Amino acid sequence: MDAVEAVNWNKIGHLGILQPDDVNRLKELSQDRENIASRFQTAPQRNADCLLTLISRVEEDRLAVLQLIQAVLSVPKNAVVFHDSNRDPYEPFVGILLRPDFRAASRSAQIIAALLTKAPTGRAPERLIEQVILWAHKNLTGLESPSTGSATGNNEQIEAALSALQVLLREDSFRIFYTSRDGITKLHNVLRNSNKNNFEIMYRTIYCFWVLAYNADIADTLFPQSLIFTLADILKNVTKEKVVRITLALFRNLLDHGKNNQHMIESGALKTITTLLQNKKWGDDDIVEDLQLLNTTLEKNMALMSSFDHYKKEVLSRSLEWSPMHKRESFWRENAHHFEENNFAIINALVDILQDPNSSNLCLAVACNDLGEFVRFHPRGRSILGNANYAGKTAIMKLMVHQDPEVQKQALLAVQKLMVTNWEYLTK
Q: What is the pLDDT of residues 182-207, one digit of tens each?
């Protein structure tokens, strides 16, 4: 948290910018930050007008006045009052945002964001939303290099950008707008590229994702698998409690939306969640509640995803992907006999995928894996797949020279399983 900067009220009083009563009232306001909400509300409209006048006129005390306005706006309802002013509440801050003074610009970005979230319905200027996002993204990527009042390294720039986004994304209507500006990718890059020991940047970035995930449309479709894997890795390796808390809260928001449950399981997050629940005592009830909910829900999903009915639907829809059951020996050991149903209809479907020129490389690789696992775990798998009526062996062997390395690899492994009796011995 920034140290409180004192406004030189004596100097401001001598400049005659404000009436003496206004100066005294704002001075008292600035000196009682703990009760700033009630102090501001003693004369809300007059205080807002005076602060807008002050920030438009002062130079030397600009940072201190900006900090005071930030403190006032930390109580969201106070932002509404600024919109009732006779002047444009954004104008003085936009001017500062465009200047090369980094610290003044960063505070102005947060103030503009706070004002936008409380703009009258339908009257938040889109150009200003765009401007705050553009400023934040430039600082997230280190493109801004202010010549005065510069950040002390890239971390300060990133934290300032994230602070502005944390405020802006409080408003749900801005969340979709933000994602349309490639926001999720920008934030994901911060997680991937920042110092793994910088917990403040980590926390603020995940906080932005957490707020975004309150929008159901975003939670359903816009969190990619790669991001879930990055978050799962953080949950596994970072012990800082506030980072653990916000990551769990984000996962809770993503639960039961789109393919997020599946991706959490595939990422290993379920195993980490179970470990955190069983092996550590938490003083925070929210963490315990989130862990319990995530563990219970994902365990049920794991069981469902490992069922043969779920597997059949995946194969018959020709939408194969590396869901957990394809790699779990227990699935194949328990369900190998089910492949006999309907005259080995699922085996035929897998071979059809291999023979279909329109099958994706992912589908081909997974189908090769599955046929190989069928050979391993079904007592007659080798003879069944080698039977000319199924054409499975021939289809797999053709893919050993496929242009995609992963398809080649899975085809080779499947052929080895066809040829070698003691596969387990070979892989040891």
A: 999 999 999 998 888 899 999 999 99
Q: Phi/psi class of residue 75: alpha, beta or left (left: φ > 0; alpha: ψ in -120 to 50)? A: beta
Count the alpha carbons within 13 Å of 246 in the hemisphere toward its beta carbon: 20
Mean pLDDT of the chain: 90
pLDDT tens column, 98-133: 888 999 999 999 999 999 999 988 788 999 999 999
Q: Rounded to the nearest 10 degrees, what angle do helices 241-254 and 285-305 cross at?
A: 40
pTM over 0.85: no
Contact between 100 and 148 (Cβ < 8 Å): yes
Residues whose CB falls within 8 Å of the CB of residue 215, separated by 6 or more in sequence, listed in order: 172, 175, 176
Q: Which residues contact 125 (CB under 8 A, 6 or more apart)?
A: 90, 116, 119
User: What SS3 class is residue 101?
Assistant: strand
Contacts of 271 (CB under 8 A, 6+ apart): none
Helix-strand-coil split of the chain, %, nearest 5: 70, 0, 25
Q: With b meaning 16 or more CB within 10 Å and e meaning fewer, what string describes 367-379?
A: bbbbbbbbbbbbe
Contact (Cβ atoms closer than 8 angstroms) between residue 84 and residue 45: yes
* Number of residues that this document lists for the chain: 428
The span from the CA of 203 to the CA of 209, in Å, is 10
